[in-house]
Write a structure and sequence with these properties.
Order of helices and strands: HHHHHHHH
Number of helices: 8
Keywords: DNA-binding, Sigma factor, Transcription, Transcription regulation
Protein name: Sigma-W factor
Organism: Thalassovita autumnalis
Pfam family, one: Sigma70_r2
Radius of gyration: 18 Å
CATH topology of the largest domain: Rna Polymerase Sigma Factor, Chain: A
CATH architecture of the largest domain: Orthogonal Bundle
GO biological process, one term: DNA-templated transcription initiation
CATH superfamily of the largest domain: RNA polymerase sigma factor, region 2, helix turn helix motif
Shape: globular
Number of strands: 0
Distance between the termini: 34 Å
Length: 184
């Protein structure tokens, strides 16, 4: 299924390069939701994420003719969204730091033990944004280490480190130890 989806996406990229409007629309429908989820993980705010993704699509479509390999599109487009999110975060950093100091921690309720997928999504949501984004791209988006590094605009060693930390934190959360340990 993933192979077929990637092949279809590559075909859309090739057709979109020629200006094929229907291919562009299909590409936005196919990749857009994934980019929005990624931006939401990074920003923690769906409205800001929608703005970031919308602005990123302008850049993506402008840069599409220069993209050398259609297979690179998922990582390349995610990298553009990541950079947009970084700009937003930098602009809001001071305000967020103050808000974080003033806002009490809100505990979320863990889902029922028999719903593994819901428990995993809950656990990923508990991770720091950079770990959640890294683990989601690697496991949920099925990107290779090099693709995750490109998508997040970080060195491959940092990807490995974040994956290791995220796996440990997920293990602790899913085994019930997350209640006693702060996750960083």
């Amino acid at each position: 299924m993933i192979g077929k989806r990637r092949a279809y996406e590559e075909l859309l990229v090739v057709e979109a390069r020629t200006g094929d409007r229907s291919a562009i629309e299909a590409l936005v429908r196919l990749r857009g939701p994934r980019l929005l989820v990624h931006a939401t993980r990074l920003l923690g705010d769906r409205d800001q994420a929608q703005d970031a993704v919308q602005e990123a699509w302008v850049e993506i479509l402008r840069g599409l003719p220069g993209l050398r390999a259609a297979a690179a599109f998922p990582a390349w487009s995610t990298q553009i969204v990541t950079r947009r999110c970084v700009r937003i975060i930098k602009g809001l950093q001071k305000g967020r730091a103050l808000a974080a100091e003033l806002t009490p921690l809100i505990e979320t309720e863990q889902p029922e033990p028999d719903d593994e997928a819901a428990r995993l999504r809950w656990a990923i949501d508990q991770l720091p944004a950079e770990q959640a984004a890294t683990i989601a791209l690697f496991y949920l988006e099925d990107m290779r280490l090099t693709e995750v590094a490109i998508a997040l605009d970080i060195p491959q060693g940092t990807v490995k480190s974040r994956l290791s930390k995220a796996r440990g934190a997920l293990r602790a959360l899913l085994e019930g130890e997350g209640d006693d340990h702060e996750i960083h």
